[in-house]
Amino acid sequence: SQSVIKCRAAVAWEPNKPLVMEEIEVAPPGAHEIRIKVVATGLCHTDLYHLFESKKKEGFPAVLGHEGAGIVESVGPGVTKFKPGDKVIPLFISQCGECKFCRNPKTNLCEKGWSNERYDVMSDDMSSFTCKGKTILQFMGTSTFSEYTVVNEIAVAKIHDSAPLDKVCLLGCGISTGYGAAVNTAKVEPGSTCAVFGLGAVGLAAVMGCKAAGASRIIAVDINSDKFEKAKVFGATDFVNPTELSKPVSQVLAEMTNGGVDFALECVGNVGVMRSALESCTKGWGVSVLVGWTDMYDFSARPIQLITGRTWKGSLFGGFKSKDGVPKLVDEYMAQKLKLDDFITHTMPLHQINDAIELMKHGKCIRTILNVCPE
């Protein structure tokens, strides 16, 4: 099995262009690497962010996708904890277990992964992929829009043998991100009042997290009122569409909650919305968490917002240490303590990836699952 595999992948040759189905070559796994047959993958807005918003030329050509699940095809020298046939989720945050971040319980960052130096282009300069004689970058170290991918063992979670891969793939990014932002980062408290801005998969997962933590009121905020029906399924109690208001949303939330919410989660990745979320919090103890991924603009707020007792913080992958957290989340889903199926609105084969991108661009889906390889 230790030979080059030729397979199909959706290649992003350049920014702002449709992805192209190509035959690529996938190298055998090197030391401490695992070659994975990808069975299913979600499409996340961060894939679109790289393609249409940040548009850094040095980040192309690439295979996007970072919300996948699959089966170990082969392992490289030195890999002892994985074997062919294991069900796995590739992780865009590694957990080496040895760096200063891994050893500190306060964070889920890790020094060893792609992200340490190259946040701007969102990939490592090393890759296992070639196509037409060119190196193809592995987006976020994962590249799940390919039938096969190669990932270092520090960025792979081994999961339950009977986990349905076309559902649990969502725990590779969006659902863990939103859910953890509420339970781990915000630390939502029983009986509290919460607001969630942005009701994509991440926002809906944040709503689910607020409910799991025992919030008594969860206000869902989105400029697309079509999202409110879905938010109700996950536990939202109130709904606000900022485009239908005559005054700032923070003012309306303050009136609804006698001075502001206890917790506000920004799940869009828009610096204006970040400010609104902060200003929607009560003074004294309000906590606002940035969850949406973006690194293009500065945010701003008046110092008095923090001086009077609000806290402003951020969350990456929901604060879960990746290799530890993901298998536990899969188990929670298997025990029906965590919803995943309700996030899935569309399913299609990988070669329809551009249709999935259009659906997301126009807010017509929550999550589209792309079937990549049969199990």
Compile the SSE list and pairings.
Elements: E1 5-11, E2 20-26, E3 33-42, H1 45-54, E4 62-63, E5 68-75, E6 87-90, E7 129-131, E8 134-138, E9 148-152, E10 156-158, H2 165-168, H3 174-186, E11 193-197, H4 201-212, E12 217-221, H5 228-234, E13 238-240, H6 249-256, E14 263-266, H7 271-279, E15 287-290, H8 303-307, E16 311-314, H9 322-334, E17 344-349, H10 353-361, E18 367-371
Parallel strand pairs: 4-8, 11-12, 11-14, 12-13, 14-15, 15-16, 17-18
Antiparallel strand pairs: 1-2, 2-7, 3-5, 3-9, 3-18, 5-6, 6-10, 7-8
Helix pairs in contact: 3-4
InterPro entries: ADH-like_C (IPR013149), ADH-like_N (IPR013154), ADH_3 (IPR014183), ADH_Zn_CS (IPR002328), ER (IPR020843), GroES-like_sf (IPR011032), NAD(P)-bd_dom_sf (IPR036291)
Keywords: Metal-binding, NAD, Oxidoreductase, Zinc
Enzyme class: oxidoreductase
Describe this structure in words.
The protein is built from 10 helices and 18 strands. The protein has 375 residues and is of the alpha/beta class. Strands 3, 5, 6, 9, 10, 17 and 18 form a 7-stranded mixed beta sheet that branches. It has a 6-stranded parallel beta sheet with strand order 13-12-11-14-15-16, with helices on both faces. A 5-stranded mixed beta sheet has the order 1-2-7-8-4, with no helix packed on it. α3 crosses α4 (201-212). The chain is globular.
Short description, anyone?
This protein is an alpha/beta fold. Helices cover 24% and strands 24% of the residues. The strands form three sheets. Strands 3, 5, 6, 9, 10, 17 and 18 form a seven-stranded mixed β-sheet that branches.
